[in-house]
Amino acid sequence: MNMIAGVYLWFSLPDNWLGENGILTRLVEHIYYVSLSLVIACAIALPLGVLLANYRKGAQVAIGLFNIGRALPSLGIVILAIMLIGYETSTVIIALVTMSIPPILTNTYVGIDQVDSSLKQAARSMGMRRGQMFFQLELPLAFPLIFSGFRSALVQLIATATIAAYAGFGGLGRFLIDGLGRNDTPQIIGGALMVSALAIVSEWVCSMIEAFMVRKWRAGKLELSAT
């Protein structure tokens, strides 16, 4: 009970929410690290996954190399980046991008590659251009698997972005690191709860987006078949 009361007190104090080191500031920092890393990872993994699925040459080798990032410890990547670049925000972003590319790349490749070749041939016979076939056929069919990789990367990033605090930067991980340094258990638990809550909310938002997009494409497919 004392522990629960301590965590409740930590959340209820206005000073813990406001200011340079407050919860809101650390939450914004955390979302910034996650968002920037995810945008960069998507900019690399999505087009590369589509390219590998269409040309296939060296696809397994490329995906295997990128998947090495999953086996590397996140803190080790940060330390290596610090040694090469120094104490810059980019060191954290590099580590996060390295770890978030594999699920997006793999799912994009598999999703596009698994589109039935007979459907592609039928689309070509109807006179669809390459871009039309991608947006009207391949992307709608592959979207659930691609978005699954995106969701996996997002949740992983939210949890892993706490390593920014190890490198001396901000984010919700500061509550864990600072709490350990001060032996402040309520702060540690409070920080962990904030990370968990952010991951749960992000997962819920992603599920809503996925359901909306699937309904939209199914409706479009029904209208197309009716015509």
Commentary on this structure:
The protein is mainly alpha-helical. It has a single domain (2-226), classed as MetI-like (MetI-like fold). 82% of the residues lie in helices and 0% in strands. It has helices at residues 2-12, 23-55, 59-71, 74-85, 89-113, 117-125, 130-160, 173-182, 185-226. The N and C termini lie far apart (65 Å).
Order of H and E elements: HHHHHHHHH
The figure for the number of domains is 1
Please provide the count of β strands.
0
N- to C-terminal distance: 65 Å
CATH architectural category? Orthogonal Bundle
InterPro entries: ABC_transp_perm/SBD, MetI-like, MetI-like_sf
Membrane topology: Multi-pass membrane protein
Organism: Pseudomonas morbosilactucae
Protein name: ABC transporter permease
Question: Topology of this protein?
Answer:
Blueprint lengths: L1 H11 L10 H33 L3 H13 L2 H12 L3 H25 L3 H9 L4 H31 L12 H10 L2 H42 L1
Helix pairs in contact: 1-9, 2-5, 2-7, 3-5, 4-5, 5-7, 6-7, 7-9, 8-9
